[in-house]
Amino acid sequence: MSHSIMSGTRKHLISQLVFFDEQYSIFYDQYVREYGRDKQVIDSLVQRYKETLEKLLAGDDDALLQSLHGITLLGSSVKVLFEVDGYEESFTVVYPTDIDPDNNRISFLSPIGRQLLLAGPEDSIVLESPVGSSHVRIKEIRFTYMGGFS
């Protein structure tokens, strides 16, 4: 992968980290407050996410590139295999402002998004959704950001 793409990816991940460091209280007031009793779960998830980003960004570009396929980040597309019927589906985990259900772009605050964020390849998880539970295995993770950041 080209140096400029990795540089852009690194800047994008740094901007996520800065966002959570500097804007979390505003973000919380707008999005997390409505989750009420889940506040501690979301706070813990955001803290783990920030710690993960710090570790990833501490490495060189080769290590970062390898990590982009090894852990689900904001901006990752995750292909899951539903174990009961072998059906595969992809979800992209995004900020709440970037959701697009028609294109399977889901908020990391959603029940499915929370379960996918920070998951790795071959992890088996139970996706809890309003329609029930599904046992899935993560087949592939691709960080879909590969260019400019607005």
Task: Walk me through what this model shows.
Residues 74-142 form the Transcription elongation factor GreA/GreB C-terminal domain. One of its GO terms (molecular function) is DNA binding. This is Transcription elongation factor. With 150 residues, the chain is of the alpha+beta class. The chain has a single domain (3-143), classed as Transcription elongation factor, GreA/GreB, C-terminal domain (Chitinase A, domain 3, Roll). The chain has helices spanning 3-22, 24-32, 39-58, 61-67, 111-116, and strands spanning 76-82, 88-94, 105-107, 124-129, 132-143. Strands 3-2-1-5-4 form a 5-stranded mixed beta sheet. A hairpin with a 2-residue loop joins strand 4 (124-129) and strand 5. Helix 1 packs antiparallel against helix 3 (39-58). It is globular, with a radius of gyration of 15 Å.
